[in-house]
Amino acid sequence: MYPYLRVGPYLLQLSGLALLAGVWIGITLIEKEVARLEMDAGKITNTIFYGLIAGLIGARLGYALQFLPVYLSNPLSLFSLDMNTLSPELGTLIGLIVAFVVGQRYKLSMRPTLDALAPGLAVFMIALGAAHILNGNAYGAPAFLPWSVFLWADYRHPSQIYETVGAIGIFLVAMRRPFGSQGAGLNFLFVVAASAVARIFLEAFRGDSVIWPGGFRAAQVIGLLVLIISILLINSWGKSTGSTNPYNENQKAEI
Amino acid sequence: MKDNDAAGLLSVGRAIRWAIWILIAGVVWIFLSRVPAGSMAQTGPSPNPREGFSAPDFTLDLLGGGKVTLSDLRGKPVVLNIWATWCPPCRKEMPAIENVYRSYKELGLVVIGLNLTSQDSEQAVSDFVQELELTFPIALDRDGSVGDRYRPPGLPTTYFIDDQGVIQSVVVGGPMSEAMIQSRVEALFQEEQ
């Protein structure tokens, strides 16, 4: 685990490359899905591009905000290529907000667009698991089982493998579009709900969970909330089924 | 779209019924898999050179005389930088580490430059330290035993250790920017509070 690749003076962490590969494969699958759904590929590609750029800038600004005096005294550090000074949480939030705003400006219908993004999200979850296998993060709780792995000075659940196998399972089902065209947005909700279920059940085998009062694991509770919201949305969005192709922008069928 | 896409594998009604059962099972599972109070399973008690674990202890001679024992520094945040003189990024980041050390040493920050002396020469280390006027202690790993215990994936590798001796973050590779080192040190002091 945690292999690095030395390229000249730089040490590249292979887990980072796995995530980049996930983004690249994800975007490729999204483009294919957009074409299949007869949506406007240019608009969606631009939306993703702006979202990624805004996410990257937001991640750096978010990190700088956490340590404002440091960056005020040395503002040029904002432009450093250092990947260790990013705030992934804020970057994700800002990237999503910007992608939403750009999508609105392009008049993209939200639910069909989400369906187009579903394969990309599913493949990114596999890449995240692979990244954890490569860097040893998200490690398992100590356990003596026939399939335990020796990691970080203990025998542990191979939680990274559980996570990756779960994500592959979700991806395989997601690629079969489990809800067909019963309602726009449902196939995306499947990926979200299934990922939440995986988190709820697999988090129990992790050795690095954030623990909330009462001994509850934060990721499980958040996963539960995501699952509840997904079920409510599946129920709501599944009731509206139009006779036109909801994905075709030219038909302008608002769901 | 193809016509056979219309139905899909799942009907919405059946999916919701399944999802509700899974939801109930999830609630039960979350309750059953709570972490008991005082459990050590989450803290990773064994010394290990990675985030969230206790930093492996060592005692080493210092350049210029004296010794340093990591566990004696409990109560103070520590920056442990593993380096060698033949490593260009290590050399390049030293001035930034020195600047941060000078800014924070009054607040209690300890910086240790752990030289992999078994792969280096003490004379080269001494010359380099004089050339850059480094004032933080340089520990000499003459037999390579500490390097073996930490097994840094690359040089330089820097460990940011909190006042409890737990590694809060690890930065592999360099050169680190001064802002980055400073932000990690700030995080150590925030943790202390």
Globular, elongated, flat, extended or rod-shaped: what is the shape of chain B? elongated
> What are the secondary-structure elements of chain B, in order, as H or E?
HEEEHEHEHEEH
Q: Averaged pLDDT of chain B, please?
A: 90
Order of strands across the biggest sheet of chain B? Answer: 2-1-5-4-3-6-7
- The number of strands of chain A is 6
Largest interface: A-B, 69 and 52 residues
Q: What can be said about the biggest beta sheet of chain A?
A: 2 strands, antiparallel
Using only C-alpha atoms, the radius of gyration of chain A works out to: 20 Å
Major β-sheet of chain B, in short? 7 strands, mixed
Tell me, briefly, the overall form of chain A.
Answer: globular
Number of helices of chain B: 5
Strand content of chain B: 15-25%
Strand content of chain A: 5-15%
Q: Percentage of helical residues of chain A?
A: 55-70%
Write a concise synopsis of the structure shown.
The complex is a heterodimer of chains A (255) and B (193). With 255 residues, chain A is mainly alpha-helical. Chain A is built from eight helices and six strands.
Question: What attributes characterize this protein structure?
Answer:
heterodimer, A: 255 residues, mainly alpha, two-stranded antiparallel ribbon, 60% helix, 7% strand, globular, disordered C terminus, B: 193 residues, alpha/beta, seven-stranded mixed beta sheet, 5 helices, 36% helix, elongated
Structure report:
With 255 residues, chain A is mostly helical. Chain A is 60% helix and 7% strand. The radius of gyration of chain A is 20 Å and the shape is globular. The N and C termini of chain A lie far apart (47 Å). Mean pLDDT of chain A is 89; it is low at 250-255. In chain B, helix 2 crosses helix 5. The termini of chain B are far apart. Chain B has five helices and seven strands. The longest helix of chain B is centred in the first third of the chain and has 21 residues, at 12-32. Chain B has a seven-stranded mixed beta sheet with strand order 2-1-5-4-3-6-7, covered by helices on one side. In chain B, a hairpin with a 5-residue loop joins strand 6 (157-161) and strand 7. Residues 40-44 of chain B have low confidence and may be disordered. The chains are: A mainly alpha (255), B alpha/beta (193).
